[in-house]
Amino acid sequence: MIIEPKYKGGILLTAHPEGCKKLVEKQIKYVKNNKSYNGAKKALIIGASSGYGLATRISLAFGGSKTDTIGISYENGPRGKRTGTAGWYNNIFFKEAAEKEGLKAKNFVGDAFSLEMKDEVIKYIKEEFGKVDLVIYSLASGRRKDPIDGETYISALKSTTGDIVGPTVDLKNDTLIQQTMENATEEDIKATVKVMGGEDWELWIKALLEADVLEKGARTFAYTYIGPKITYGIYKDGTIGAAKRHLEKTAKELNKILKEKLSGEAAVSSNKALVTKASAYIPIFPVYATLLFKVMKEKGTHEGCIEQTHRLFLDMIYGDNPIIDKEGRYRPDNLEMEEDVQDKVNELWKQINENNFKEISDYAGFKKDFLQLGGFEVEGIDYSKDIDLETYAKLIP
Ligand SMILES: NC(=O)c1ccc[n+]([C@@H]2O[C@H](COP(=O)([O-])OP(=O)(O)OC[C@H]3O[C@@H](n4cnc5c(N)ncnc54)[C@H](O)[C@@H]3O)[C@@H](O)[C@H]2O)c1
Description:
The chain is of the alpha/beta class.
């Protein structure tokens, strides 16, 4: 079958296995050609199949530490005419490359929020993998079934300060349109905190501690976004911001526990705004990203997932130059937050309209990143070639 990108709003519905493979290889090549660090021996990455989680796994395994990894994700393989998700293929190709170098790379595909998944992973660590010295929490999800009360919570990307009208990109028609981010109800806020807050991270760390599968000195990090003032309405002061505040509170609590029990550490890392499956879906956010990319590319400070994540581990988590703010958050987003960068973004934000957005923003770069989430627009791939999905369906992640 010929696989083409199909998308609805900010969601990509198809994935190209050969393109995904090439992009995983590209990330591996980037870290191999970069400076290395002495990092974790054995890591568990929750949300490992795309975006920041995948970049984390690649940096750890191929960036000099030769870390054995367990990756958890929620993805689908090809079935009938459905191509399967990009993360499904990323899992397969990461594992293939890691095993070629003699590393352990185990994939668990299923619901990380469930108690069953926690039990399965712990059993595997005990019986085959060995104690873990790093746990990364990089989940982004729209829903969560709470394993304790059995209720399913649906997160909402809404404002808490009244309806917000702003520009966004229509990726299908390559136009700039106006979008409204609605004001949240109390229910929306509660549900978003349930899904994207720290509750599940805490359940994971407590379960791992109780099962005695964390190494002495074990560290855990969860990813967050803070962003500049211009995005506060849609992010920091929105439902997602409420969830991230809960995540930060959880980090402080987990830090106390890990310090006391294992001389370990728990913290959040505030990462740069990038195009991922999760962020492309946030209303209005894409326009901020297109302007940010333009300014950072011109300044020469733009980073993608792998560059940002590798720097986080190399310089900060396992390096001598950590940037940690007064709240104890790691700040690899320092380059995004530079004053001159934000001044220019603000200036462009005032000017942007449907006639000039392709010139004054990096819309082309943003769209390419978006299509590459599904393995499209990758150099060297012949997209007119027939892909036999049956062959890919036989591969086990
Ligand atoms: N993209 C950005 O601009 C940005 C910036 C800063 C921080 N972050 C944060 O980084 C983290 C990761 O986000 P991302 O942007 O890399 O998103 P992503 O969509 O690329 O990755 C999300 C991961 O979570 C997994 N997942 C989702 N639901 C699951 C479930 N029920 N069980 C198991 N796995 C599940 C997916 O399979 C995938 O591996 C999030 O906390 C996000 O807020 C993102």
